[in-house]
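Subject: complex prediction, re-run

Hi both,

The earlier run crashed halfway through, so I resubmitted it with identical inputs.
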Amino acid sequence: MGVRLEKPWLTLDPELVARLPGQLGVFQLANENREVVYIGFAGGQSLFGLKGELGNWLGRWPFFRIEVNMAYRTRCRELLMVHFSDHGAYPTENTAKETAGLGRLSVTAVPTIPIKTKEGG
Amino acid sequence: MQLQLTQEQDMVVRMVRRFVREEIVPLEINLDPDTDQLPEEDSRRLKAIVQDMGLFGLGIPKEYGGPDLDMVTQTLISMEISQHRAGLYAPCYGVFGGAGLAQLFESSDVQKENYLYPTLRGEKRGFFGLTEPSGGSDPARAIQTRAVRDGDDWVINGSKIFISGADRADFGLVFARTSPDKGRGGVTCFIVDTDTPGFHVRRIVHTLRSAHYATELQFEDMRVPHANVLGEVNKGFAIANDRLSRQRIPYSAGCIGVAIKAHEMALEYSKIRETFGATLSSRQSIQWMLVDNEIDIQQAKWATLEAADLADRGEPFRKQAAMAKLVSTEGASRVVDRSMQIHGGYGVTKDFPFERWYREMRIRRIGEGPSEVQRHIIARDILGSSLR
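This time it finished cleanly. Structure:
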């Protein structure tokens, strides 16, 4: 799993949403320019999981993408922090309450410790 | 050891138990089952209640404004404040406050002004940076992060992993090797401001834990003034080690609290749930599970309170703290597992707290020194130095 959510954007329409899983996970919404406008999650209290959460956004934004993830809270926080690191601001639809207390990530930092493989690479 | 609680301890335990059951547990009905935060207004209200109870800032010495409770009483409180869904890693969602980085009580006057007092006032947050990708069980040898003296500064390069709260912290305690050939005698503790150039939080490390996610840190030519050395150069391992032993007592108590709650729920459920015309509690197989729960909890309680009692009396408690950590984490894991089993299908849903406790309790057998390291500590103690 990469730090960023980089799956292709899907059209946020009723037919596609009806086929979504009812699982827990995170999602992003985007505008016509495919710029992220909201990052959210389907948690333990979401009716019908991702399907239910995305259903609440029908007709408001044209695109979405999802990631099924049991660690939905920490993953959502990570995506918000990555967005802030990339853009200097949180997505426009996320409320101050949703972003309160978030930390900082330096996602552009390059690891200095090489990952060793069996081949010694 | 006196096993009977004093009148004061009994009163404190009853007061805290009531607070958890009447103020915290009802709030969780409407919270996300994986959350580690309360709504701000609830958090403020509950902190005020805890302050009125005189218990805010557990672990903070009296001279710094804390309630100055002995370790046994703190342990008893820790067993109570973890008795709810988020209780293992977010006991009472932090409304009891805490000592934070206790090592700062031993810092210099200037360091206290810059870091300790702002932390106690809630103006700054700190993190504890010991574990590295090269290992956490043997920090004295595993630390590869290097600090090299350059004039009035130290230049630090390296990385840390499984560090809680670093992304939201204003500063942290970072342990780095200052003398490569001296083993545990070559480690120094630095107070590092997180806005220092070269300080990076590279990623969140997602784990089984719902609360207080961990992070991975990277230091690139990070310059830290010599004035920010905590204690003395090459004596950082003692600072880390003291914390590791002492921390095992409340760590154990938190596990016991969750086990007590899980067991209590299993007892209640077994009395009302019927299968084949009789309650679960009438089945011998279930009775034995409940008996085993009771035994696991009692032995963990005794071991943990003994370690706390020794610490209060200023006697060596390293072996007893290791035994408490071992018995409580392994015993509580079994209690949660059995209680989940008694609840059947409901036990694994997010409607009940067992699945969160089950996941988070698994980490407890690894965090703060895995079970194998605790056994190693106990073996070294009973066999003497010949083990080395």
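Chain B touches chain A at residues 32-37, 40, 133, 157-159, 165-169, 194, 199-204, 206-207, 210, 213, 215, 218, 220, 350 (CB under 8 Å).

- K.
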